[in-house]
Design brief:
This protein is α+β, with helices and mostly antiparallel strands and about 200 residues long. It is about 20% helix and about 35% strand. The longest helix has 13 residues. The mean pLDDT is about 95. This is ADP-ribose pyrophosphatase.
Length: about 200
């Protein structure tokens, strides 16, 4: 196993920072590695705490009386210089549990009312997003959305279009559009299963 010698914080931003890791690999070669993180300080990095507290939530939500549409957002991302389809998502605030964060983020991004499902913890525990680049982890929260779409609570920095996609639209999106990978995998599940949340009843 590699050995970490020193970690230095290189930036001081509100939402994400860059850290430099000085280490030695298992092959006894020097390693200079860079990590993007939501952590505010070196002491809060997951490589220091050894914990996997979720940075954010991703919301997989069905909509409509027949529960046959999925709630997506089409968002402009500066990393791509264009739009990408994603699930509603956001950071968990201090003192907020996953379900509370999901309800808040769904409303802020879409105007919809979100009712979370309570599922086996294995389905909603935080998993890592892009571990070669960042220590960020996100938990998935499942549930049902209702109400009217609104942009009233969106931040000025956000450019978001809310999409209530049926299976035909999901097929088109997967074939033709840019899609976040965590969203894409769940959309494939949405296409396959008559009851998309049936897998949540399985024992792990």
């Amino acid at each position: 196993m590699g050995k970490i010698h020193h970690v230095e914080k290189l930036t001081d931003n509100r939402f994400v920072n860059l850290y430099h890791v000085d280490a030695t690999s298992v092959h006894n070669t020097p390693v200079s590695y860079f990590v993007a993180s939501r952590a505010k300080a070196v002491s809060e990095l997951k490589l220091k705490t050894g914990k996997n507290d979720p940075d954010g939530v991703i919301i997989y939500s069905l909509f409509g009386e027949k529960k046959d549409r999925v709630v997506l957002i089409r968002q402009y991302r500066y990393t791509l210089g264009g739009y990408v389809y994603e699930f509603p998502a956001g950071l968990v605030e201090p003192g907020e549990d996953l379900h509370e964060g999901a309800v808040r983020e769904m409303y802020e991004e879409t105007g919809l009312v979100f009712t979370p499902l309570h599922v086996d913890p294995a389905f909603e525990k935080p998993y890592f997003t892009t571990v070669g680049l960042t220590d960020e982890s996100c938990a998935t929260v499942y549930g049902y959305a209702s109400g009217e779409i609104s942009k009233a609570a969106q931040e000025d920095s956000e450019e978001i279009e809310v999409v209530l996609a049926d299976r035909n639209e999901v097929r088109r999106i997967l074939k033709e559009e840019r899609v976040a990978i965590m969203c894409a995998y769940m959309l494939m599940n949405f296409l396959k299963d008559e009851e998309p949340f049936e897998f949540l009843n399985e024992e792990i």
